Amino acid sequence: MIAATPAVTPVDTPLGAPVEAVPAPAYRGDLAEDALLLAAFTAAGEEQLATLPVKRERDTAEQDLAQRVLTACRAARRGFLVRHAEAVYDVLTDGRTRLVRLPDLVFAAADRFPGLTPTRAAMAAEDGVIQAEKDGLEADQALFCHAVLNSPVAGRHLIDAMLAPTPRAQELLPAFRDTGRIELDSVLVERRGDAAHVTFRNAHCLNAEDNRLIADLETAVDLVLLDDRVRVGVLRGGEVDHPAYAGRRVFSAGINLKDLRNGDISFVDFLLGRELGYINKMYRGLLTAPEHGAWAERTVQKPWVGAVDAFAIGGGMQLLLVLDHVIAEEDAYFSLPAAEEGIVPGLGNLRLSRLTGARTARQVLLGGRRIAMSDPEARLVCDEVVPAAAMDDAVERAVAALSAPAVAANRRMLGLVEEPLELFRGYLAEFALVQVERSYSDDVLAKVERRWQRSQGRR
Question: 3-state SS string over the chain?
């Protein structure tokens, strides 16, 4: 058991004094003792930060001090996690006997090990604050996620936890089985014959991804995988409001950069959660029997069809990389403009090259190349190119072809070859750190601010 954290003696560090004046924790390897040292050190750091104005009101000296305090506390957390990540995870999951979803896990860590991750109250205090004016507490969540995923034992267990059905999907499942239709805030799920059609309906932003859409998509994917009457899932964008595409379907514009600028893109729920959540469920299946042995007995997998109208940008193109059959209208294009936006395109770096080869992948990922359906490379990332009027028929043909009983078993075996679980886990461990660093970097903040200013009619 971890002992209660003792009262912390305030550290008298005048403004401008080096943060190194506060002794760093001298960890000894005992979990309980080291947890107390971490709690005392980070509490002292929080006291220092509490004496400063909020970030947007700090002068240069104040911001320099704040950054040094934050850096020192993060170094203390990293040192603690290097020694104790697996033991902490075992405490939080009762020896890996409970599956705890990522959002619950990071806050359980804050409650059980004070100072290790930000509390709910600390994260709530940054709600409504634009990205550039935050202290980036999500970096502390990322340190924790990196350490857990970096452990083969804890990382695999966390991946399992995120493959389990969400409580909301389980609550909605009886109604979906009964009616064949569930209408969520930003997603519509409809069963038609052997297929369940998942339609993005974020019409106000060209079906761009935001926190709400990610949550709704995970619920939708769960319903598709849980309903025994469904053999195939279909992803397609709905009609959008943008004047340039009025009355037309659009697949996806990727991450909502306005929300990123406004600080409304969550690291846990979106940047990392989408990869461990609904996208991984589409690729690896839904965990339905965690107590059983073989992977094939523990998960439900189904094939997926993607119907791309207009374009699949960023996160939209990332989705195509886990689908089994992709159909695009002849005027559509695909792109992963991560280099331009300054962030990492999810698992695009892991998955694109196995479809296109390394050279084309570098052109797309590093050079921002768009792939038009008239390009020869288009057939490396999609299976059919059809006129817009022929899309519905093409989808029906694909559903019929993928409804055969052996399809799910064979796609499972392909997945084992193409992307072993350990490769996925190791990539995500590094992604957790790199993505949060990029989302708070000066160049990204400047780019999203310029775009937002232009959208407001400013220069």
Answer: CCCCCCCCCCCCCCCCCCHHHCCCCCCCCCHHHHHHHHHHHHHHHHHHHHCCCCHHHCCHHHHHHHHHHHHHHHHHHHHHHHHHHHHHHHHHCCCCCCCCCHHHHHHHHHHHCCCCCCCHHHHHHCCCCCHHHCCCCHHHHHHHHHHHHHCHHHHHHHHHHHHCCCHHHHHHHHHHHHHCEEECCCEEEEEECCEEEEEECCHHHCCCECHHHHHHHHHHHHHHHHCCCCCEEEEEECEECCHHHECCECCECCECHHHHHCCCCCHHHHHCHHHHCHHHHHHHCEECCCCCCCHHHHEECCCEEEEECCEEECHHHHHHCCCCEEEEECCCEEECCHHHHCCCCCCHHHHHHHHHCHHHHHHHHCCCCCEECCCCCHHHHCCEEECHHHHHHHHHHHHHHHCCCHHHHHHHHHHHHHCCHHHHHHHHHHHHHHHHHHHCCHHHHHHHHHHHHHHCCCC
pTM of the model: 0.93
pLDDT tens for the chain, 459 residues long, are 344 333 333 344 344 444 555 678 999 999 999 999 999 999 999 999 999 999 999 999 999 999 999 999 999 999 999 999 999 999 999 999 999 999 999 999 999 999 999 999 999 999 989 999 999 999 999 999 999 999 999 999 999 999 999 999 999 999 999 999 999 999 999 999 999 999 999 999 999 999 999 999 999 999 999 999 999 999 999 999 999 998 899 999 999 999 999 999 999 999 999 999 999 999 999 998 766 555 457 899 999 999 999 999 999 999 999 999 999 999 999 999 977 888 999 999 999 999 999 999 999 999 999 999 999 999 999 999 999 999 999 999 999 999 998 999 999 999 999 999 999 999 999 999 999 999 999 999 999 999 888 888 765
